[in-house]
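Shipment paperwork, digital attachment
Item: protein structure file
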Amino acid sequence: MRKRLATQEGERKKFTATFSRWGKKINYNGYSEDTILLISIRDATTNTVVADHLWFSFSKSFEKLSLTEGAVLEFEARVKAYTKGYENKRYGIRNKTSDFKLSHPTKIKIISA
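Attachment content:
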């Protein structure tokens, strides 16, 4: 769990992160969707690490940038809670927990390549 993000739920803040790699996921409709992995996410004002990694959808804001491995990005995002894990009602399996993420990243720019 990302405990530093838990204390800031609902706030919109500025963060920095390092681009690691691209990925793919299957979205809600069953289609493949491109993603990106950002590592070492830091609060830009205090320079403290708030998460070791986060996955983001490869949105148009990220498409505009020419991302290379190791590029440091600066962006604004909202801290939001979400539920993760697996549930199967038929067999009574419920392995769900809550965690925190950064959503709706805006004002994305590369600060060092």
